[in-house]
Amino acid sequence: MSDTPSYETNRWTKHFEENDLEIARLAVMMDIPILDPGVIDRILGNDASVCGKQKPRAFAELRAMMMMHAADQLKATNSLGALETQDMVRGIVDRLRERIGDRLGNRQEPPSA
């Protein structure tokens, strides 16, 4: 088996990179520590109190993009498999963290088994 990513993997990676960069941009604009525990669930639950800066239109756009991300992640999982999709998204988040820094919050890694 080749180590070269497939066309499909590259397509999903580009899609998530573009969408996640916009999600990160909106989160930073509203001063939302999006990677802090529970914040994503609160955004999806339409809880705008997570915003450091109140921008209702931007929050609605962020929430819609996050809902789209969740739906697309399910599609990617069906297409690529759970492990490959998780690794891909984790890599994208890590690269965003390198670019943007701690303004995204502190993602908690699950404990090792």
How does this structure look, described?
With 113 residues, this protein is mainly alpha-helical. The chain has one domain (10-98). Helices cover 65% and strands 0% of the residues. It contains four helices and no strands. The protein has helices at residues 7-29, 39-44, 56-80, 82-100. α1 (7-29) packs antiparallel against α3 and α1 packs across α4 (82-100). The radius of gyration is 15 Å and the shape is globular. The mean pLDDT is 88.
| Shape verdict | globular
- Give the termini separation: 28 Å
The number of helices is: 4
**What structural category characterises the helix and strand content?**
mainly alpha
The SSE order reads HHHH
Low-confidence stretches: none
Over all CA atoms, what is the radius of gyration?
15 Å
Percent in strands? under 5%
Give the biggest sheet: none
Total domain units = 1
Overall mean pLDDT stands at 88
How much helix is in the residues?
Answer: 55-70%
Number of strands: 0
Brief rundown of the structure:
The chain has 4 helices and no strands.
For the structure shown, list the relevant keywords.
single chain; 113 residues; mainly alpha; 65% helix; globular
SSE blueprint:
Blueprint: H1 7-29, H2 39-44, H3 56-80, H4 82-100
